[in-house]
Design goal:
Elements lengths: L3 E4 L4 E6 L4 H11 L6 E4 L5 H12 L3 E5 L2 E5 L10 H4 L7 H10 L2 E4 L12 H9 L2 E6 L2 E6 L7 E3 L5 H11 L5 E5 L5 H12 L3 E3 L5 E5 L8 E3 L4 H14 L1 E6 L7 H9 L3 E5 L2 E6 L3 E2 L5 E2 L11 H8 L2 E2 L1 E5 L10 H6 L3 E5 L2 E5 L8 E3 L3 H13 L3 E5 L2 H4 L5 H7 L3 E4 L1
Parallel strand pairs: 2-14, 3-13, 9-10, 17-19, 18-20, 23-24
Antiparallel strand pairs: 1-24, 1-25, 3-5, 4-5, 6-8, 7-8, 10-12, 11-12, 14-16, 15-16, 20-22, 21-22
Helix pairs in contact: 1-2, 1-7, 4-6, 5-6, 8-10, 8-12, 10-12
Bound molecules: ligand EPZ.
């Protein structure tokens, strides 16, 4: 079992190139299954979730080959339309293959997805949308069995919540369906736009991505393409939080400040200096952050991203004043607070609210990652603490961060993997 050993107290300084976006690469890899020819994806991060997605593609008959941050996906004539429970359980994103299988085979059998334990993660919006598109769905014994009597046809779908996964799944099913699909109250995350752009490169007809109403005109077939995946805005927020919390200055290349505007403007309120460069972000943090006066509410894009909640909280544990978080997306996304409190933070969780009273010092401790972003928050707290912090269960962190210790070492952090 690997672990990260962090020696706190070092101010960070240096430059890093941001990794590709996990939450864009995963749906795009699923979308490649819809194509009749090879897809070449650049800027694909080297993550365990990415390799899990490639195992699903291999299981479905595709051939995947990785070369550094490029993955080639060669579809074949396979008619496999089911995914094993073991593969489905490896991550939440496996559910995105449901839309791809329906788009290509008009039938499929999958089980419920796995993923970080952030509270219940139902797929009711995914399934009710597919039913509107002509798919018969039976759920029993943990299996989702989908069949299509006549054809998968377009539909007008209104999401009760702008679910990222549901929006992506509907897109994958709709691009090869008969007729037009309209998604109202669609998710507006930048990763949705990246997926739509990839699909358009493959010949899909999609409009309105990035807004709340997406219109998709089904086409007969899609061909493979060569595409460069967007940078990971949440990894960017993570490294910005590390620099803000530990102090120092750095440049994060290939970062898109506009994609995390709400995060950047909050970080600005803590007293950090942040400048947008041509192809990156410059950040400088003094000796101590100011607390954020306004409540930090996680919201669907373009609001403050839930994935940046834990890492910003870690940075604010040593600040002047009190910051208040409100987690509105997931029911159970404060699992990292116990570890931060063990390290000396003063955090009180009351339902979906977390009150963070800034303290003067954090102390190194042995902590266990609870989920992807919570684990990253513990690493950030370790950089800010006196003494040594040991983070175990870093398999969670490796799901979303490409060699996190290498990136932080480039910024001068005293961190190693054992
Ligand atoms: C995606 O998860 C991301 N994962 C998450 O990132 C991110 O936190 C989330 O979107 C919100 O931005 C990937 O893209 C792989 P949702 P997803 O569907 O699609 C409820 C990370 O750290 N819901 O927008 O699962 C759901 O329970 C991960 O990188 C239903 O009730 O998120 C949740 O409370 C964590 N029914 C809320 O909606 C449904 O059918 C948002 O879920 C679907 C969702």
């Amino acid at each position: 079992m690997q672990k990260l050993i962090v020696q706190g107290g070092t101010r960070l300084r240096g430059e890093i190139n941001l990794q590709g976006a996990k939450n864009s690469a995963l749906p795009i890899m699923a979308a490649s299954y819809l194509c009749g020819s090879k897809c070449v994806l650049h800027n694909c991060p080297k993550l365990t979730d990415i390799y899990a997605a490639s195992r699903i593609l291999n299981y479905l008959g595709c051939k995947c080959s990785f070369a550094e941050n490029t993955v080639q996906i060669m579809p074949t004539e396979s008619d496999c339309s089911s995914i094993s429970e073991e593969l489905m359980q490896e991550m939440r994103s496996s559910i995105i293959f449901l839309g791809a299988l329906l788009g290509r085979h008009k039938k499929c059998t999958v089980s419920y997805p796995g993923g970080c334990k952030l509270g219940p993660r139902p797929i009711d919006m995914h399934l009710s949308a597919f039913r509107k598109m002509g798919v018969d769905i039976n759920e029993n014994f943990g299996k989702v069995i989908c069949n299509v009597k006549k054809s998968v046809h377009g539909a007008r779908i209104s999401l009760t919540f702008p679910s990222v996964g549901a929006t992506e799944n509907i897109m994958l099913c709709a691009v090869l369906a008969d007729g037009e699909t309209i998604i109202n109250n669609a998710a507006r995350e930048p990763e949705i736009q990246d997926l739509a752009q990839f699909l358009r490169c493959c010949g899909a007809k999609i409009k309105g991505d990035g807004e709340s109403r997406i219109v998709i005109e089904g086409v007969k077939a899609l061909s493979g393409c060569e595409y460069t995946i967007m940078s990971d805005r949440i990894a960017c927020a993570t490294y910005l939080s590390a620099i803000a919390g530990a102090g120092g200055e750095a440049i994060i290349h290939k970062a898109c400040a506009n994609c995390i505007e709400p995060f950047v403007s909050l970080l600005d309120q803590t007293g950090c200096s942040i400048y947008t460069l041509d192809e990156g972000i410059y950040v400088r943090s003094g000796m101590r952050m100011k607390a954020i006066e306004s409540c930090i509410r996680t919201m669907p894009h373009p609001g403050f991203p839930t994935d940046a909640q834990a890492v910003l909280m870690a940075a604010l544990t040593k600040s002047d004043g009190t910051s208040v978080f409100e987690e509105n997306i997931f029911d159970c996304r404060y699992r990292h607070t116990d570890a931060l409190i063990k390290m000396g933070a003063d955090i009180k969780v009351l339902g979906k609210t977390a009150v963070v009273q800034g303290v003067d010092r954090l102390y190194g401790a042995k902590v266990e990652a609870t989920d992807l972003r919570g684990g990253a928050a513990m690493v950030i707290a370790g950089l800010m603490a006196e003494g040594t912090t040991e983070v175990t269960k870093i398999c969670y962190i490796d799901r979303g961060y490409e060699n996190i210790e290498v990136y932080l070492q480039k910024l001068g952090a005293d961190i190693r993997r054992e």
